[in-house]
Predict the 3D structure of the following.
Amino acid sequence: MESKDTYKTIAFPSSAFLFKEKNSKFFGYAFPIQSESEVKPILESLRKEYPNAVHYCYAYQIGTEILTHRANDDGEPSNTAGMPIYGQIQSFGLTNVLIVVVRIFGGIKLGVGGLITAYKTAAQLTLESCEITEKTIDIHYLLSFDYKHINKVMRVIKEKNIAIVSQKMEMSCEIEIVTRKKKQKQYSIFSILCLKLK
């Protein structure tokens, strides 16, 4: 069975999606992210934007082959906010995405069931408003070689239609290239280049 080399994520950060329940306001946001380090700055900016909010609940999933996820209730009763939000990420089959639902309390308690429904609905409506895109899982390589081989290396890269991410051309050269995961098995880029360089 061929391994999958694509994944679904959102194309752009969403604008705020407002869901109201018994005077409480739930503002849903979705962000495409690549690493956990991006989460904290996003939360901090939302805290500044909504200084009157009481809860900034979120969930994220990162990775393509090995998935990492986290769900945070931010003071709401256990599993009433973060997990319902994370459930929507799973339901839409997404990764490399962060969903934050900011709650401004309206004075009426919703109860456990009401909270779960409200956070789930806010996350669902937010994701429905997003543009969902399919991306390829890419493998990056760093090629190092002497400058005298530059023409041979560039010819192979051109013949195989390999994308160059970055390059440093000096006495010793470095080129970062990228290829789709499924193309990696059709040929070994390194062995092709090594053969040509001999």
Summary: The helical segments are 39-49, 82-91, 111-128, 150-159, 181-184, 189-197. The chain is about 30% helix and 35% strand.
